[in-house]
């Protein structure tokens, strides 16, 4: 498969390339595909952080198709990590469903950076969905002692199939995807406290993410350094 202009730009920006190998594959109720991968030196070279994501290069009828996925339980001692693919009708999701032990895929590491604030925030506010559930889990693990409010949007019941790593002091609300995501925007904006020194992390569909981020920044006046937000996918 030919690489496209994106690959050249990423290389120029310091992107590092690796070849991943599928070690095992497991369907989670048909709604997620969980792959265990050998990172080909990725973890040893790049280190790890909560919410860390990589760019995978899929072959879409001979054209390069780059999509981001989140490392789950990266283990630098073995060089292995898991990826959890939410299943929908897309090239990346189809590849994951069909992947077999021994298959390989190219990955580029460029752009992922995140640290929980130090000192730790007094509260976390996390907003995600099926695509960002692996990242939400990594935050719940990393900030295990920090009280958190978590809103998770789901398009159908099957999207709850992946275990959420919530503890007793994590307050979780599942929100059905309605009105093209506006229901999540309204729910979160109505529930999030108007004062306090928490840290906000928002990653769901692009327009939904923008709607929530706008409220946090413009209405509540949350500073940039207390907010991380990124659209994880785009509704067609
Ligand atoms: C930093 C980052 C980390 C991510 N980590 C993960 C992860 O760990 N696991 C994961 O599953 N996803 C993750 N995503 C989201 C994933 O990259 C997108 O869902 C991507 O669009 C999937 O590519 P595709 O080729 O399957 O579908 P595309 O070709 O992008 O889209 C095909 C069709 O599917 C729809 N679609 C795409 N994604 C979704 C979705 N999530 N839900 C419903 N419909 C969708 C599109 O609207 C379109 O109609 C991450 C995204 C980012 C930015």
Describe this structure in words.
With 236 residues, this protein is of the alpha/beta class. The chain folds into two domains: 5-109, Elongation Factor Tu (Ef-tu), domain 3 (Beta Barrel), CATH 2.40.30; 124-229, 3-Layer(aba) Sandwich (Rossmann fold), CATH 3.40.50.80. The chain contains six helices and twelve strands. The strands form two sheets. It has a seven-stranded antiparallel β-sheet with strand order 4-3-7-1-2-6-5. β5 and β6 (80-86) form a beta hairpin. α5 (182-191) runs parallel beside α6 (206-219). The protein starts with a helix and ends in a 7-residue tail after the last strand. The site of flavin-adenine dinucleotide (FAD) has 24 residues, from β4, β6 and α3. This is FAD-binding FR-type domain-containing protein. Residues 15-117 form the FAD-binding FR-type domain. InterPro entries: FAD-bd_FR_type (IPR017927), FNR_nucleotide-bd (IPR039261), Riboflavin_synthase-like_b-brl (IPR017938), SIP_FAD-bd (IPR013113), SIP_fam (IPR039374), SIP_rossman_dom (IPR007037). It comes from Micromonospora noduli.
